[in-house]
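Human:
Take a look at this sequence-structure pair and walk me through the C-alpha cells.
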Amino acid sequence: MSGPLAVIGSGMIGSAVARLAVAAGMDVVVSNSRGPGTLAGLVAELGPRARAATPAEAARAADLVVAAIPLHVYGRLPAEALAGRTVLDTANYYPERDGRLAELETGELTSSALAQRHLAGSRVVKAFNTITPHQLGTLARPAGAPDRSALPIAGDDAASAEAAGLLDRLGFDAVRVGPLAESWRIEPGTPAYIRPYLGDIPALDVADFLAWTYRTPGLAVPAEQVRRLVAAAVRQAAGEARLPSAS
C-alpha cells in the first residue's frame, strides 16, 4: 500500500498498530470517538508521520482502515465514509462487556460478519484480534527473520490480500483462515487466540492480566503453528469462558 493507514480507535490495540505503522515508514491518521484534541499526546509520540482526525475524516483519508474499537460500539463506525474501503476489524465478543447479542449467541453470525452487515459498502477483514497489545509490538520482526510470528486473518480474497500486505509491512506473516464466515476459528476461546503468543498464563483478573502481558515479551508463533491451531478450532457456544479482552 502506498497511501496512509487510518486507525479508528486509540486504545491499546489501535495505538500499537499506529506505532508499528510509523516505525515501518507509513503515514498514519489516528482517530477516536472523543475528538482529535484528545489525541495530541499520541500524535506527539508518533511524530511527523501521524495526524489526528475524526473517525469519518480518517476513513476518507485512507483506503485501508483499522477499526480498533470494542464490539458493542461497532454501530458507531462511519459506514458512509468507510464505503469502498478495506476495514480490518480487531474486535472480540465478550458478553460481559458487549451485552448478549442474539446473532452471536446462536452462531448465526460471527462478530466480524456483524460488523460487515453494518459496513455494507466496505470489505471487512478480521485481523489483529488474537494477540495482546504489548506482544503486537515485541513480536514484530522483519520479513525472513527466523523468529517471525504470524497472525490469522479472515475475509474475502482481495481484502485479505490487502490485510496480509499490511501485516507483512508491520512485521508479521499472515495466515488466511477463509471468509468472514470462518472467522469463528480465531475468536476468543479458540486455540489460536492469545495463549500461543504468551505461553502459560496465570489466573488473573482483567486488569492484572493486561499488566502481566506488559511484563512478558511473548513467544514467537510461526505460520505453520498458526495453521495447525486454526485447523484444530471447534465452534463453541458464545460466552463460554475466555481470556480477558485484548482490545
